[in-house]
């Protein structure tokens, strides 16, 4: 996006604007920036930069020393001027620098008030009497580290021309890499304000500059004039001024980290509008780029002027290490003015006048210290030098964004751990090219793993990192200095028979969050020395005599003739898909000869109706020395397939799942249906393509789409029961076991439902009449109850077979109601007990025999009856009677309260937020106050149905009576 602005010939404007030297001040623009300078205390350096008119307001500019800072706590502090740098013949940049240590964390607003703005500001009434106020808000928190606010590198000295779009970009740069956002703001100031005032006020009568003038249209003539700011780029544009004069606007630069705003800066600036026949120059910059750290960036910027005038090119932005006053951030003595990137700064040349067409070269030798998630913004500017006197210089700006990522980690290798039974993989890689010293503390190497070895193409500019869609998951992090990592799946062990791929990536810590290119992948699988379970299939579905068949492979890495036999398989079973209560159910001795059927077991007498089951196998060899069996390893756990059937309106929804070490994804599963029972006979009715575990589902509406065993469609009837089982198809990822694995679920039956559901009940709640309550009502009562009653509609197309009612409740109106209880039909009442107050809203819903729930009943709500009465006299004489000023009767439903007592002169003598609202006649230092009349105020928040209701104020007087001579 291009932006445009005009550089004004300041001397010629003096006659047009007629600024008075006697009253006019000198402030054109300014902002306040901060940086934390101590890692052990909350000490900040605060810098105000202001831009002064040195022709129309030179005398006032001389006198602007000191200025007064308000640090958001305490009184204003005088701060001497630190520097006064000439920007051009008419303007200086002035800095005021102070150091302040905050007492603790919090949000602080740093303010500076300078009396009197310039005279004749068109959109500020009586501007000569209105103060110029700046404010910056910071979050003080040790966890943010040595954070600095962004700095605004483009001086706010822009001028505009009538009828032409004007734009300004502050070239904001955050050295910490925080995200920035922009928004417009009404300038601050007050008539007859004094320096040292710490309260920010919007300028009274301020006008949007687009509302001033007659022909208030944009430059293109297509609509009204506008003043906008781009929230992302920071381009502030006025399209277009209608009349000459000087105008003030303001905008805010917000600083964000991890989705939390941690500061904001106000820039207040002045725009001088005049008329000029000169045509603005054009500038061409390269497309945005994304490069690896260490790349030499060398780009050409070109410019032309339609009038043939000579032009000057220049650049702004963080990579140049140059502030708006032309000075570097990194001084020759090594003392930094802000937290800044490593000293490898960009250059741009030439910046002297050239004939049109002109060109300049941007050059930046990047390094690893420049890596960050946010791109760098560089703004290039061309200004023309018109021939002849009395013409206004015109300028054009355009931005160029640079994203810098860290180099790719190299030399990644993977191998199984020496202890094969540990099921671990050891990763190694080369020392990182950037070196530890060039990266911020806390930089880490992050390790990612996925099952399978399919390569994923990654672009560090378009797709940085490893998104979940790639299949990779983070498995570990190590310091950047480390070059090895052992992956044992958090001590759970990796899977046998699965091929894994690994990648690593360098991640920089908060706030930069930069990262490297992802490494090349490396693939590895654990040696296969134990069996692999291949089948856990349900043969029959019964509650006491169900049957599951378990099958497994022989261990391919074991030679049966190596002298370590005989061998043994020990089979264990646990209840449920994720059960851990494993018990041994079989021990099968073997010599691993292929002619023996020793890799199958039929598990009988189990409840396959109610349960899924999970199995594992431990493999034992014979120790040649002792002759004893020793466990070599254990298989991964594998469960049976568990099917659920949910009735719908003339349909049944099927879902299934299995917890197995192989993958059932990207296969075609088979759905079988029967009208006989859960054990069939079954007819194959559908072959379901499955991509992920989230798609293990089928909706049966009666169709039969498989013709191989005969087409048997059905009309789904609410009077019929339909039974199902599912056959899953899976496969291990490793080449050793590429066979397809077919396993059946248990059988399950369900009946569809019809389209009718219950009608919503009509609900009522017992009432509470506040006008009839006595002051003693509910005195000292701590629990309350509401009684609900409802009726079912007698007409309408409803399901009358109601089995229960569900009660929904919320203690506050306007909130979502939640289910709190249910009652069985035909009960039509409910008492909600043990409440802390009556306040709340209710709904009731009926549930039919088929499990369908009605729409909600009418919502009924009940509120409390708050009460608070204070007496007018008390006698704290210790006689046990009326010694304390407190509520006359029991206060009702008080949630919080604060009592403040002042004497007749308005001096506060007592304050307490005790719920009892008791005052014993002593001040907060424990001393008796004299007798007399006192005024009190109770700020009380009641427990109400409207939980967001504000606190109420109760005011009155009380007479304190003491015996003569009491102190």
UniProtKB/TrEMBL annotation:
InterPro entries named in the record: FN3_dom, FN3_sf, Ig-like_fold, T9SS_type_B
Gene3D superfamilies referenced in this protein's UniProt entry, alphabetically: 2.60.40.4070, Immunoglobulins (2.60.40.10)
Protein name: T9SS type B sorting domain-containing protein
